[in-house]
Amino acid sequence: MTARFPFDNSYARLPDRFYTRLAPTPVAEPGLVAVNRALADRLGLTLPDSEAEIAALFAGNTLPDGAAPLAQVYAGHQFGGWSPQLGDGRAVLLGEVVAPDGARFDIQLKGAGRTPYSRMGDGRAWLGPVLREYILSEAMAALGLPTTRALAAVTTGEIVLREGPLPGAVFTRVARSHVRVGTFQFFASRDDVPALEALCTHVIQRHYPEAEGPAGLLRAVIAAQADLVAGWMAVGFIHGVMNTDNMAISGETIDYGPCAFMDAYHPDTVFSSIDQFGRYAYANQPQIAAWNLAQFATALLPLMPDRDAAIEDFTQAVNGFADAFDTAWQARLRAKLGLATAEDGDTGLALNLLEVMAANGADFTRVFRALSGPDPVQARSEFADPTAFDGWHEAWARRITREDGATRVARMQAANPARIPRNHRVEEAITAAVAGDPGVFERLMAALADPYAEDSGLAAYEDGPTEQTRVRATFCGT
Ligand code: AMP
Ligand code: MG
What's this model's pTM, rounded to 2 decimal places? Predict the structure, then answer.
């Protein structure tokens, strides 16, 4: 059977200045590392029969019928500094498919070769970041948070040069769309109002059909980002590069670069080797999201006939992010503590726990999961000084008497994953795959598929790192 993708390429119907049409650059020797057949089914894709044909397809060596390949242009603020032109420097959008349920998805090859937006880059990716994105994006989906998805990973049979020679790879990313805050910024910074209008109409139709005009779109994106960032915080996720070009208008987590889930809880945690000042530290993420949304609001201003009134209205909307985030975050914290009802002291109770955890090097995921079990006192051993937990536990035990005890364990386990893609496990999977053994990666993927389920057979994936295996820095996806 040959590949059949139900393409309908609406982005390719936007004006020429939105992209450059070009095909992926073929690679020497495609090798299939992983293909997500469940996702292919969900999208309504028919894949070729043989692994070699599947590898050739997701390497960009053969194009499915109906593809309209292109590289998208965008701009963005990177670490606060303005870059007037970025764009898909190593990615090619094959097109959009409309799934059997009517939902529309981009299919993009990342690492597909040079484009007009490559600047100094080689347009390629190596196997490490490809597998990292595969693992983390699928784990994020399994955790129930909005995210781009992983459809395939293939090796190219070519070497890419980074710190040394490394095996080249291509990642196939699926997204509701790849439109970013930076896409709006690109056209706004050029005073290209017709393009901004077309982009605004495109994303409203695609993502927020109920939103009315730019003001409605702004508020919808703010609400989506508030929920998303609260969701990240609730699972201990640190994006690592929240530049405006890495913030999707759809509200999905996008651009898994030096991102990581934290082990020991500390609000200042940073992994990214390029984030020297902690701009994108765990606890800074809500403020950074608000800052990015202010840039989005600014990019929408040229669409507003009464600029002064719009500035006032948009400022109010962006200021509303903090409240929306707090509401979402408090709901997440209450769920994590098993509180189905809301009482005044709940947020303080949650914040006290986080404080004690930070002071005691306690593992974020393990503490909440232990609290979710039939015997919450098990959490004690996660604290450097277990007696520091006791005082907090007494207060929580009193609070929880006013909740439904019969459903507590089930509710808390559904809010507190047992397994997250821990950094040392991700590194271990990458190292083995580079050495030619994909089994470690496959077992990790299986372990992360149902992260809220109790499974004693997977206990090893619930452990934090040892001193030897602890990962202190993660590197950008390039
Ligand atoms: P990122 O940090 O992955 O969000 O990338 C920032 C910008 O650099 C984007 O415009 C990317 O397309 C571009 N880029 C990253 N890596 C490469 C590469 N190896 N070759 C060409 N462009 C790249
Ligand atoms: Mg990016």
Answer: 0.98
